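Entry 14: structure prediction run for Sugar phosphate permease. Input pasted below.
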Amino acid sequence: MSLAKPAMPQAPAHAGALPDAADTAFAKVTRRIVPFIVLCYFFSYLDRVNVGFAKLQMQQALGLSDVVYGFGAGIFFWGYMLCQVPCSLLIYRFGMRRCMAAIMILWGLVSAATMFVTTPLEFYAARFLLGVTEAGFFPAAVMYLNKWYPADRQSRIMSILFLAMPLGMVLGGPISGALMSATHDLHGLDGWQWMFLIEALPAILLGLLLLRMLPESPETAPWLTPAEAATITRTLNTENAKKNTRFSAALKSPILWVLMAICLLFNIGNYGLVFWLPTIIQSTGMSSPLEIAMLTAIPYAVACVAMNLNAAHAERTGERRLHAALPLLVAAVGMWASTLFPHNTVLAMVFLTIGISGLMSTLSMFWGLPGRVLAGTAAAGGIAMINSAASLAGLIGPVLMGGIKQSTGSISLGVLALAGLMLAAAVLLLAIPRQLMQSRG
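Run finished. Output tokens:
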């Protein structure tokens, strides 16, 4: 009987020092820059959607109808949409860090000023200006991350970035509810006014810190060794050579327009839910602003886990199509099922949680796609155009929900409409060529 040890399986030819060095370098980048960007995006999202919590007091205080509120919540996206492409091209030209810092300070000031609105026209103006000032932040953040990560690493990074959205609801709901309850009638101001002021301050402070926290590029990062910076730069340069880099060429690509259509459809559902979820929960029989805010946090807390499990599994298997489309199908079913129990808070919350978890899982997968085909000015303009579709969705979603509720008296019909749009987006995702959505090793 031979005592010789069995031969160990040989590592693939490409496995060795370079992949290990690359993994180390990218892990260091993730630790250093991603948490700060997520924190900034958290307050961007919170300052955008906290009007949904303010509605619980603000609507009665200012005498706003459902349609006026829905239009005011949505007009944010007119400013956001109109400024997307020009802002993104200017950001690409003049530098992402400086522009991101200025954007944060400006949106913080506008968000704080929302506390002073007293009429529908002033409400519209404040929301529109908030959209204008926030317009460049998300495209700038995506472009900035594209300068640090190749396409095959972006889905996981986007899932981390998009944690800011569910966290904005998980933490933002209870924080907003607690602020409104604790500060109501403080120094003669309503709780919703204090909420806008207090929640705007972190954006201003983070904007002042941004230039110190985020380096311009791998070459200027003091915490990367020269070898690590060279590894990242070489990886990105090799990948970018295969992408569209001219904006005019990107405009002729059918995939850009398909991505815009998908983004429009599922974000109508996303923003319809974001701005009306407290009201949907209230319609099941809840009345306390704090209790409603706490319940609003539950679906997004579960979504934090679901979206990261989905992204991790997609990265491990290299499969993108089903990991993007199936969660959206689940979201559509969950939204539909929630309408079957309009007066049962527990069951409605269960299905809303399923729906929102599916929707958020698709979000992180979706935003890894543009970086697979676009670079340079094509990425700047293309990402801005896709995000403009999301902005248009943000205008349509709240107004659609408000119009359906006011004309029919039923919020459930609005939720059903959102479910149908999510289903259509899932079908379009499945129509994208498979090779585009697979990892490229």
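Notes: The two ends are 43 Å apart (CA to CA). Will compare against the previous run tomorrow.
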